[in-house]
Amino acid sequence: MPRARKIHRFIASGAVLCLAAFSVPAQPLATAEVPWRSPSLTAGTTGTGDSPVLLAQAQLKETTPVGQAPESQSRPPEVAPIFEQPGVLTAPGRYVLEPSLQYGYSSSNRIALVGYTVIPALLIGLVDVREVKRNTTSAALAARFGVTRRLELDWRVPYVYRSDATVSRDVSNPSSGESVFSSDGGGLGDVEIGARYQLNAGGADKAFYVGSLRFKSHTGKDPFEVVTNCITACTGNAAGSGLPIDLPTGSGFNSLQLGVTMLYPSDPAVFFGGISYTHNFLRTNISRKVLNNQEEYIGEILPGAVVGFNFGMGLALNEKSSFSLGYDHSSVGRTEVNGVALPDSVRTQLATLLLGYSYRMTNRTSLNVSVGAGLTRDTPDVSLTVRLPMTF
């Protein structure tokens, strides 16, 4: 009997040791770090030092982390921003300060013909050739605040500096030389406020939809406040160049923009796009300043509405950096003066090809750089934007 009792005790202790060796502890699943494994290993194989227990811990930690909410499944993925509005909403209770600096350069050639033709190859009159070079620098401070998991408020205050150089020459007169007209201007730009709301829950292989509403004021110096180089009036008066002496820093009109942005995660890329409609509000009793402290009465002006769309793709290079490639297009309608569309006003198409790069410097600070190339004559030739969003 004593000998049989010892055998039973030996067998029981051996079973306990086996269970302890092959069971998965509860605490390491939530806190233990998984050793590095070579990415070349395929599923079902292990590297040196990888046990089935560690592989089970790694799989469980990657799929269902303990004590951490699956935030990435209900929030849009983060991509390198290349458009004006970001794609990711600010977390509730936090705010983001984003200083930015943007530079744009554009050049255009304009030929004005004033005269009549005897035969198609002969012009009698004036041929005015102008080359315009424009530099625009904008420094802005934007702030975003997360109200809830789906609602975000934001505002943006810019400071704008512009400089234009216009080179003109009367080619019909061989003795006349080129004349250069330069002007610049700087000051507060148009302040913007807006709100963004996530419309659906989204998820893996499901699109996220974010609606936006943005109001742009005309706090900047508008084109009707600066002095235009005209003697008494610019309309029907050939005296003067008709160019502003001091450049404006704002558009001169209030506008309201309504848009929807879509983000579709498809590992390892994120596809995004959006559509928007901008309505410009009518201004009445507008007068333009000319030389000798005189004013030219214009009346009421209604700029054309703007319909825009964009699309692109973002790709993460590693856990800290990503890049994006996209296309932005805006169609600007005709401008009306006193209820009648201007004869020389046509619908304008603005198209830009954009390339962006983002690098996460710290857990709260990122560096975003984007470059845009104009694809139409009315679009700036090149634009460079640097953003530094900081989360608090």
What is the secondary structure topology, with strand pairs?
Layout: H1 2-22, H2 28-31, H3 52-63, E1 95-119, E2 122-146, E3 151-170, E4 179-188, E5 192-198, E6 208-216, E7 255-266, E8 269-280, E9 283-290, E10 294-302, E11 306-316, E12 321-332, E13 336-337, E14 340-341, E15 348-360, E16 366-374, E17 382-387, E18 390-391
Antiparallel strand pairs: 1-2, 1-17, 1-18, 2-3, 3-4, 3-5, 5-6, 6-7, 7-8, 8-11, 9-10, 10-13, 11-12, 12-15, 13-14, 15-16, 16-17
Describe the structure.
Helix content is 9%, strand content 49%. With 392 residues, the chain is mostly beta strands. The chain folds into two domains: 2-63, no CATH class; 80-105 and 136-391, Beta Barrel (Porin), CATH 2.40.160.40. The strands form two sheets. Strands 1-2-3-5-6-7-8-11-12-15-16-17 form a twelve-stranded antiparallel beta barrel. The chain has a four-stranded antiparallel β-sheet with strand order 9-10-13-14, with no helix packed on it. Strand 2 and strand 3 form a beta hairpin.
Strands of the largest sheet, in order across it?
1-2-3-5-6-7-8-11-12-15-16-17
Number of helices: 3
CATH topology title of the largest domain: Porin
Structural domain count? 2
CATH class of the largest domain: Mainly Beta
Based on helices, strands and strand pairing, what is the structural class?
mainly beta
Distance between the termini: 74 Å
